[in-house]
Amino acid sequence: MSMSQVHAERTQKTVVGEPEVLEDARGVEDSAAWLALKDAATALQAIQIKDGSVPDEKARAAELVSTITASIAELAPRFPHDEAYLAASIADFRRWADDGFGEPDFLDSLVAFHPEQHRVDGLRHLVVFPMYTQNGSSNRHVEALIVEVIWPEFVAALEAGDYGNKLFVSLRLIDFTPGYDTNSAVLFPETVAMREIPSFTWGAIFQDREAARYRRVVRAAAEITKLDLPADAVEMLDDQKLAEETFVMWDMIHDRTHMRGDLPFDPFMIKQRMPFFLYSLEEMRCDMTAFRESVAIQKRLESSPAELSDVEKQILAHAKLVQYAVIFDRIFRFAITGSRVRNYDGLGGQLLFAWLHQHKVLHWTDTALAFDWADVPAAVVALGDAIDELYWRSIDRPKTAHWLAAYELVSSVLTPNPASVWARGLSDEVLAGPTRGYTDQVLDDEFPLSMFYEALEKKMRAVIESTSGIRATDA
Questions:
Q1: 261: part of which helix (H) or strand (E)?
Q2: Sign of CA dihedral 281, 282, 287, 292
Q3: Of the chain's two ends, which shows fewer C-beta atoms within 10 Å, N or C?
Q4: What is the pLDDT of residue 461?
Q5: Closest CA to 416 of 456, 450, 380, 382
Q6: Count of alpha carbons within 13 Å of 348, Cβ hemisphere only?
Q7: Which residues pair with 171 in a beta bridge?
C-alpha cells in the first residue's frame, strides 16, 4: 500500500462524514456561545489564585462556571468527534463547583480528550481546561481555545511511513483566552490541573504561531545582518501556509527523536535538577536529527530514477525548507529570546551559530552575514554527530561524568562566563559530593552572548517582543 493510500484509509476510519464535520465548526469563533464562554473563563481567571482554586467570590465563580458549562453544551454538537470529552468537561466543572472551588481536578475530561485520534486537516476542537501555559502563565487558571488541525497529505504520508509519531498533534490557534496571548505555542496534557498523572497519549504544538514568529523575526534579522536569502527561503517568509507545513514536518521528526537513539537513562531529565546546558543539548540533538533526516529525504528524492508523485514533490519541497527553518529559527530567534537565566533554548541557538562559524560555513564579514550553502548541511550534521557521540558514550559513564563531558562539548564551541567555576574546574569537594553541588555552581548565564549577539539583540529586541501572542494573520 502506498503512503497516500495509508493516509486515505486512516482518514476514513478516523472521522466519518469528514466534510460535514469540518463545516460544522466553521465560524464558531464568532458565535455567541463561544464569546460567552471566553468572557466567562477570562473573568474566572481574575478570581482564581495560582493553584487554580477560588478562595473568595465563590458565588461569582458559580455563575461563571454555569455560563461555561451552558456554553460548552451549546457548542458540543458542532464538535461531534469530541462528544465524550466535552461531556466529561461539563461534569468536571460541575464537580469542581459542588466541591467548593478548591484546587481543580480535570483528570476525567483530560483522559477523554483524544486529538491524536482525529488528525484530519482543518478539523477543529474546543478545548477548555484549568492549566498553565508553557512560556506563558504559570498559574493553573481556566483557559479556553478553539484550535484547528494542520495535517496536509504529505505529512500524513511521512507519519505513516518512516516517521511514525502517534502522539504528535499539529494545530492552528483560532481564538483563545489570555493565557495564550503570550509566547506559548504548545498544548501539553501535563499542564492540566489533575489529581494524578495518567499515561499521556498526545502532545500538541501550534505551528501557525511558530511559523508567524519565524517569518517576522527572520525577515527582520536578514535585513539587519544584510543576509542574502536563497529564493526558496524567501518564499517561505512570504507564505504563512508554506511555513506552517514546514514547521509541522520539523516538529514531528523533532518530537519523535526525544525517545529514540542511544539515550541516557532519562533523556527528558524529568523532575531532576540538572545543569541547563543538558536541556540545550537534548533539544539540539532533536533539531539536528530533523535537519539530518531532511537532508537524507532530499538526497533520496532528488536521486530517484522514477517520476515523483505529487506527495513526494511536496515532501521534497518541504525537506529543503526544514533545513532553513532549523538554522534561521535557532540562530535568529531562539538565541536572543527570553531572559539570560538558564535559557537552554537560547544556548542552543548560540551553539549552532558558533559551530557553523568555526566550521567556516557561516561568515560575518564587512558587517554582513553569509553562508556557504553547499557546505552547510555537512557542518550541521557534524554537530548532530558530536552530540550523538556524547549520548552514545554516556551509557558507560556515571551521571556526573556525563555532565562534565557535556560541558566540555559546549565550552569547546562557546566561551564560558569569565566568572565560571565550571570553566576553572570544580573543586574536589564538589566533585566528590552530591549532584546538587554541581548544579549549584552553574551560573544563570554560564555562556553569555557573544559580541555579535549583544549587538543583534539590541536591534531585534522590539521585533522579538512583538511576537508575543502573534497569530497567523499578524505575520
A1: none
A2: positive
A3: N
A4: 97
A5: 450
A6: 27
A7: 149, 206
Bridging pattern class, strands 168-176 and 203-206 = parallel
pTM: 0.92
Helix-helix angle 32-45:58-75, to 10 degrees: 150
Q: Residues of 45-58 as b/e, b for ≥16 C-beta within 10 angstroms?
A: bebbeeebbbeeee
Is 138 in a helix, a strand, or coil? coil
d(CA 178, CA 136): 9
d(CA 220, CA 229): 12
| Per-block mean pLDDT, blocks of 10 residues, the chain (475 long) | 36 48 85 98 98 96 98 97 98 98 98 97 97 88 98 97 95 96 94 95 96 98 98 97 98 92 66 84 96 98 96 97 98 95 95 98 98 98 97 92 97 98 97 95 97 98 95 85
Cα separation, 46 vs 60, in Å, equals 11
Decide: 322 and 291 in contact? Cβ < 8 Å.
Answer: yes
Can you give the residue ranges of every domain in the chain?
Answer: 3-201, 211-474
Rounded Cα distance between 463 and 467, Å, is 7
Residue 451: which residues within 8 A CB-CB, separation 6 or more?
Answer: none
Cα(334)–Cα(168) distance, integer angstroms: 22
Q: Write out the CATH class of domain 3-201.
A: alpha beta
